[in-house]
Amino acid sequence: MDELKPSPVNSTPLTPIAFLERAAIAYADCLSVIYNDTTYTWSQTNRRCLQVASSLSSYGIETGHVVSVLAPNVPATYELQFAVPMAGAILHNINTRLDARNVCILLRHSESKLVFVDYLSRELILEAVSLFPPNTKRPTLVLITDDADPDADQSSSSSLTGHFSCSYEDMVEKGDPGFEWVQPQSEWDPVVLNYTSGTTSSPKGVVQSHRGIFIVSAAALIDWGVPKQPVYLWALPIFHTNGWSHVWGMAAVGGTNICLRKVEAPTIYSLIDRHGVTHMSGAPVVLNILTKSPGVEPLKNPVHIITAGAPPPAAVILRTESLGFVVSHGYGLTETAGLVVSCAWKPKWNTFPASERARLKARQGVTMAGFTEMDVVDPKTGESMRRDGVSVGEVVLRGGCLMLGYLKDPLGTSKCMKDGWFYTGDVGIMHQDGYLEIKDRSKDVIISGGENISSVEVESVLYTHPAVHEAAVVGRPDEFWGETPCAFVDLKDGLNHEPCEKDIIDFCRNNMPHFMVPKTVVFKDELPRTSTGKIQKFVLKEIAKGMGPKK
After folding, report:
1. Is residue 487 a contact partner of residue 521, using CB atoms and an 8 Å limit?
2. Which residues contact 295 (CB under 8 A, 6 or more apart)?
3. What gap in Å lies between CA 57 and CA 113, rounded to an integer?
4. Which end of the chain is more exposed for a tag (fewer CB within 10 A), N or C?
5. Is 449-546 in CATH node 3.40.50.300?
6. What's the Cα-to-Cα distance from 265 to each of 276, 294, 389, 403, rounded to whole Å?
7. Pairing of β 421-430 and β 393-399
8. DSSP-H helix ranges across 200-353
9. Sign of the C-alpha dihedral, residues 181, 186, 187, 188?
């Protein structure tokens, strides 16, 4: 069979952008986007994206140029996930919670040519570009307006709007709906640039290929069992790894995208009821928001929600499911473009008590269809750890949706992509049934008296305390032990009796090995978070360090 080789007939580059073209035919008159009173069909969305891509080309945007988006989950943001690659450019979403200095750093590092900016981020982007060094070319700015927002003042301050070349809707109107979008020459061509959150170091620019995004988008649909034409609520920021690549997956199945500018429990419950939402995603913080809202009634119909980004405590999963949500749990990184491991559910587990089901569901699970392999290894030798649910090692991955590498950082790329594996920096165990469980980030393991303590395990126990809403555990310097666990706790609202530090410590002593028990408990009204909703442990570590050694 040596004469049978790949040819142009069977090797057309894979790209998720083609999902939109298909949706415009298969689901032409079906709703694609809903935002307040604005609605579009899939044929309209396809046409609008082509028009924006056409306008980008007229602005001189070429293949390989970086185009940035600084906006929340509004229709323009969703459309730009297609429109920018349709012009041959590389899409770069910026999270809206960064400060001007960090936005400036990302724009300069990526060499962004043009930035689409939501009207609420006008001052932010103008401050960011003002930080560019003199005589440095600045990106073109395009303003995304929002007529549906009653508080919007789009016409204010000509000094502000004068800095923008035009509005997003201008680009839609002026573009050619017959534009032939730029298809990749190779499926390995870069299509997306996402920066890691940079909570402990400078953010890294993760470059993904058309092939990788196609694989992870399709794999997520298969693994989650998403049917045709779901109603998907965007509680997950699109700037967070392109919404775990669900932006393209929803086009593949002709889903309806309910856009959400701000994550608030009353708004979410209202949209679920109004539009018959069937699916949504979010970090564990979203589960906390949904369960903390006072007076919440169980859902009329189940809503499937997938959570990832940090190991969710079993107690949080249990509370969420008691409201009628069907929680799925996945694991992925910016470097994998979305979720690549999920807790595939076994029918026999449905017979287990609710607390046991939640404990099992808190595990990360097995690789998704379309992904290749994962393991837990000794980071020094690379040898596989025993699959006994006890032996701790570093989680490593390999598969088709892993990044091409870090932009302008060959050393950083080589450090984590080596010996045929991507080294995640996550510490985990492999259970006997082949399911992965993340125990911690390697940098968050607390070493007390020579014993390794998983901050995640301590947090899981804290979440079972009836008064605890959220908890995070870090190491505090200790004169005798080196360091000991320090718990930061956010209590639930409306408690008749608030526990004191001793109450929390005594609870932990009754529910975990004594060497793991926090020696310090700090009560906070709100825990610091990254731009993607993760608790900023490096901030808490500095607070704990500032307390001085525990004596």
Report:
1. yes
2. none
3. 12
4. N
5. no
6. 16, 9, 36, 34
7. antiparallel
8. 210-224, 241-244, 246-252, 265-275, 284-292, 314-321
9. negative
Q: What is the pLDDT along the chain (551 residues), one digit of tens a residue?
A: 778 888 888 889 999 999 999 999 999 999 999 999 999 999 999 999 999 999 999 999 999 999 999 999 999 999 999 999 999 999 999 988 888 888 999 999 999 999 999 999 999 999 999 999 998 899 999 999 997 555 455 444 454 567 999 999 999 999 999 999 999 999 999 999 999 864 344 679 999 999 999 999 999 999 999 999 999 999 999 999 999 999 999 999 999 999 999 999 999 999 999 999 999 999 887 888 898 877 788 999 999 999 987 767 788 888 899 999 999 989 999 999 999 999 999 999 989 998 888 888 888 899 988 777 999 999 889 999 999 998 989 999 999 999 999 999 999 999 999 999 999 988 899 999 999 998 877 677 787 765 668 788 889 899 999 999 999 999 998 876 778 999 999 999 889 899 999 999 999 999 877 878 999 999 998 898 876 677 888 899 889 988 888 76
Contact 438, 456 (CB under 8 A): yes
User: In degrees rounded to 5, what are phi and psi of residue 268?
Assistant: -60, -50
- 227 token code pair: 């049917």
Helix or strand holding residue 507 (H, E): helix 501-509
- The CATH class for the domain spanning 263-442 reads alpha beta
The C-alpha atoms of residue 510 and residue 503 are separated, in whole angstroms, by 11
Q: Compute the chain's Rg from CA coordinates.
A: 24
- Do residues 460 and 314 make contact, with C-beta atoms less than 8 angstroms apart? yes
Phi/psi at 329 (5° precision): -125, 130
Q: Which fold has domain 18-31+40-213?
A: Rossmann fold (3.40.50)
Tokens found for residue 90: 């590389």
> What is the sign, positive or negative, of the torsion defined by CA atoms of 435, 437, 442, 445?
negative
Q: Which residues pair with 428 in a beta bridge?
A: 393, 438
Q: In what order do the strands lie in the sheet with 482-491?
A: 468-478, 482-491, 520-523
* Cβ pair 375, 421 in contact under 8 A: yes
Is this model's pTM higher than 0.85 or not?
no
Same fold, 18-31+40-213 and 263-442: yes
Question: Sheet containing 190-195: which strands, arranged edge to edge?
Answer: 166-167, 140-144, 114-118, 66-70, 90-93, 190-195, 205-209, 405-406
349 touches 323 (CB < 8 A): no
Task: Return the structure tokens found at 483.
Answer: 């360091």
Enclosing H/E stretch for 20: helix 18-26
φ and ψ of 480, to 5 deg:
-95, -45
Residues ≥6 apart with Cβ < 8 Å to 22: 251, 252
Q: How far apart are CA 255 and CA 228, in angstroms?
A: 7
Query: To the nearest 10°, the Cα dihedral for 114, 98, 332, 245?
Result: -40
